């Protein structure tokens, strides 16, 4: 059977074949017990486990069933890997943030990218309020194959980087901000309407989604 | 009497004292005949006339009553001045656009600024998609007392300029763009949420409003 | 000088170096005369010309100055190429639409992709209302390096394709629909919230933007 | 009298005649004491009791007055039945979810459907990210008279099912998701704009409402 | 082959088997020539043709290829039937409007319902501003198997009817209204949040969609 | 019979008894022929006719059937009165506008108020940009029994008047403005959130609705 | 002096003259200490005190300074009256709710109305899901001078009442509901777009505001 | 080096040169430890420290490293100054609030303005519900060089002040209010659409941003 039926979930064991990596558990709205059982089903089927938007309770429930479970606190990720990941490509995925408060989303992307066997380079807190911090590090950006650019508030960083380089940019708006940022909507609209071509956007705070797009760009060449 | 009652309008002849310049006619929603009569009332009271968001019909109706009427086509402004404006200050108001399509709004600001007796410097089409065009002209920006920065689409230009200089910036979102720009809403939100301090925002396409704020900054020192 | 100053525009001749292709003209909000002059500036600098969201008037104005101008009517693009494009890569960019009404946006992407020297494969009208049309053509999808998936109304097609394959998907919501589609907003939100990973989104009706992201994925490997 | 006046509520004892089942208590915004008293009024009038969006406090308050009260925890429903429900029809109402996090809403529908005397079939976690899970179970879907399809995030599942079968579909968007899902708005819009005909939509998280529509379709034939 | 590929469209000839009726043409965004060719493909495959949101140009283009084409002007529908429809069921679909301006949407539903072989009963202009008009006709409502209730402005009619009867109601918000009706959004939200159970909602102005849901309720019992 | 059934409309001849005045025709979305026939039905039943949001075509169609029809052009109203209205009350309804562009909405209110037999006092163009125009006329305001205050753009006038007097205020937002006025939404929200008590709000541009509320306040004392 | 300056507040002792009753304290966003000091200032100036949106902490702080303070718990109001209110008018203000969960808002209106010296009649839980409860009590409604109609969810009750009677209706949307009720926005839009004339609307949950409008209608005749 | 790299942050030590004052710490989304380390980096580089949107935990973390840290509780600001600020200009920045609940935002502006070396004058609780409180203090307003006007709810105060004086006004909408104030959106839109010229707007609750604009207006003359 290409999926296991747990009643509350049908764990998709076929996904590895179709998508190149196993089902990933999105934790919000699931009970710790449900998360742990799905994780066990994936692991017992021979795959590594990744669970996003996880809190400590979810981690402890998984840990009870799978001793190798690790909690990436800033990234809010629980992962279970049978062995150390080998790099599947030498191409670099660059991850850039506009500010310090964007770190949880950036780390969600970074941990996912590494889980999928890629090389990552982090460049944090280089937002447009002090653009020299970006320009000083332009060489780091240029050696990446693809960029994940994470920004909240007005979300202008992808546009600025998009004006400077010839790489695909995956822009991630974050819910950092207040008032008329409307929990990330302002940043999302900014990124959608960028006048610099070469930018595509994922959901607010969706570091995981950006990581998968970048992974496909790097791995499947 | 400090206003003239035309029935459909009470022309505010006292405004010059309170605000430093006479009532300005906002043309949308008024008939050409109404516009012309308000213009006549202002002119006959000894003031110069400025009418914004004007079309050709409004211009012709004013022209019939006031021979010195001039139509600033790109700016959509009709103005009537008794004599050539003397500069009231040596301080420069810089007007910057991200793109070519922002010109009508920028010119509305520029014509207003000049009408009010100020010195203006235009720097058009220096958006973030080609940021070197901005950096090459940074000296122009630095000699301004205050900046009006006009941008549509993602509206990131004020943030970038705001990261570089220590002047007040009046940001004007424009309705340039399509899809999720939502007729200027995206640019407005971007400017509202700028991480670079020193930026205040006026309504979408409101070149006139930006001009008046800049005027008060320059004149009333 | 790395840009030419036309007053109303600063044509960015340096962009080719930074971004791999010359400045592209976004026509909305520009006069035919402005469009034609920018086109001339680009062409005289030795580059090919691409102008998007163009109408017939813009085309005729360009044609007057540049005899090789071609009008791609469905795509609303004017292009001027010195010689026939050589393919710069053997990798295929697949362009898929949910319906017939999505063709103008898909063709904007297709013409851009070809202008940039890429190989394109079109698969039109395979929306989820008759999903067998998609499944019958899955082999076409699988041989693409990257997919541009164009859909209006509820915009569910990228999610369905994203569940089936391991390629990066650039999703383009279109303004096709009525009522609570809110001119493409419904489709945009659908694509943003896809439960299938590997999808990034560009602006409503932005076929050009999707094409550039796909181009960077294919060319810069 | 066809209603009982409790001051804070006028319990509608006539509803059973008009609508085929007694008044159902919507618990949010009511105090536990109010809920219990309304429940008592319904029960003492000879009807079974159903209370939705109930928490444990509401349950305990009802339990004190009506010993047969049962708390359906996942469904957040309190019910009081005098005797075991007899099936009123052999026609099946199918209830399908896209994911595990949609269970509370699906169970609200399922418990209601059974309370009203119908036969239910559950098919959970068959979302479009792994569409084979749906296709493998298409026979279950086909033997239903009507389908309740529950989905959060992008809410594409009703469209896909709607493309495959000739049954009425009641689509229920859920608040599962984050960022630009806007607490179910994205899913609601998706379902509203489905290109597959045969779909009607109820409020976000309104499992109860979907159940009643399905009940009328099955019972009143 | 279960679809015909016209290049710009893949006409779904298999749909009749899956959905019980052939592909229906949604005209907006398609050229008259495209509409006519799709219509021809459907007709030549032995099916009747229905095209919604059609204007006169679309009708004339279809008429040229298919002489039996009929234009239902108020409903904005073009239909082509080989012979007079036989009723497939004796059950009545009731179609009710709140006002006169809702007629085009109601007629779109009525023509579709009849095209699909059902019996329809119309009850127009019985909105809540004069509720006695509704109450006087309650017997007509009660003999229907299912109701399509069409209303713009505040869209309260489905709630009122939903309080009175035990039938499934398909509510159709219309774009009738102005100001804060936001082109049907107000009516849509009203219908979504009805306190009377038994109501499901389709898109603004989507008479066709309501008709198909009602058809499935009546025919597939 | 208490209504006349025209097929497309059920003219409510009973309304005069319930509401104190006959059915009023809302013209948008109705054909001139439909409007004229409803008007005839009302007139032949012995009532005066009022039709709002009317254009010239509607007027001419009514005029053909009812020779006494009058077109109030600014107000966009067609009225048919058998004889000159007698005042039904000595109490004054004050109608105030912020600007000249608000006149059409104010006149819709004024013509309706007079049609219903009330005394009206107009005070136009006294917005907050020149508040002395309001203060100079405060005596006019104070002798009114109730005020209708009409304003577009930021809609602040009702708040200011509400701080000064002890009368009920019916606030009418208008669609006058541009950009982030969002066609009257900004003014509507302003009026809804007034910190000055005593203000209630009707729909954007709904001069008629405000007039009826004011009429009930004056007449039914 | 016509106001007392407490630094954080300028208590408006002149308001009683202008508005007919003293300043009312809106508690949200103020500290209990601030609330108590403003209350003391009002009381020491010889006026009665009304504080809305108050919680227990605010009450206790006021109670400490003013021993006659009373807490109306459901209404969330703190009041301090020197002596029992005499009725200032025999006219009745009717307060009607659609459901039980609307009581807090209705009671805020009722307590305010009584505080201002008016006679109130309550009619609760007569929503459109069981409209006979309303029709049975129509005589209560008819003897009121003005009606305050409070409803959440779809907010249709004012429209239905507005179709039946010739009184001014102040409609109050409440935040009762979930999902696409958007915390009262759905009800607000419904009430704004009512097809029954004679309805004006106040802010969501603003029982106080409705009470003041009704008070002016009754008292100032 | 012109910035210090802390890994999670790149502290911009160059900003003082560009912008005239050092980097300011926006605390939300940062951990107390991150805030303290950024503060230390700024202080050790010889600059004063300002941290906005700070809570007590952030303050205590900073206090541990920098003994001179001060917590401005109402303003939610932590500041660290080496010595008492000397005034850098005699020009006054006026800060005005509509109500008491607006104080936290006004104080954020006031503390920032003083931190930057300016003279401030506070005028609190002079909203339009009692406009005499404003008019009595108009002389205070007139001696300011620039005004910061802070208001929630309907946000009408800047419009009223803007009609009276010839100074630049920086308007700050606050999230004070409920229901359709939508957490400050209503006030923001009001301020954006002001009919009185001379007003520019910053983000909801952004007292800091308003302070910086005012600072540039005063200091850089």
Structure notes:
- 8 copies of one chain form a homooctamer.
- With 221 residues, chain A is of the alpha/beta class.
- The first copy, chain A, has helices spanning 15-19, 32-44, 56-65, 103-115, 132-135, 138-142, 157-162, 185-192, 207-219, and strands at residues 3-5, 10-12, 25-26, 49-52, 70-72, 77-80, 92-97, 119-123, 146-151, 169-173, 199-201.
- In chain A, the strands form 3 sheets. A 5-stranded parallel beta sheet of chain A has the order 8-7-9-10-11. A 4-stranded mixed beta sheet of chain A has the order 3-4-6-5, with helices on both faces.
- In chain A, α8 (185-192) links the parallel β10 and β11.
- The two termini of chain A are 31 Å apart.
- Chains in contact: A-B, A-C, A-D, A-H, B-C, B-F, B-H, C-D, C-E, D-E, D-G, E-F, E-G, F-G, F-H, G-H.
- Chain A binds chain C through residues 18-20, 24, 26, 145-146, 163-170, 188, 192-193, 195, 197-203, 208-210, 212-213, 216-217, 220-221, and chain C through 18-20, 24, 26, 145-146, 163-170, 188, 192-193, 195, 197-203, 208-210, 212-213, 216-217, 220-221.
Summarize the structure.
Eight copies of one chain form a homooctamer. Chain A has 221 residues and is an alpha/beta fold.
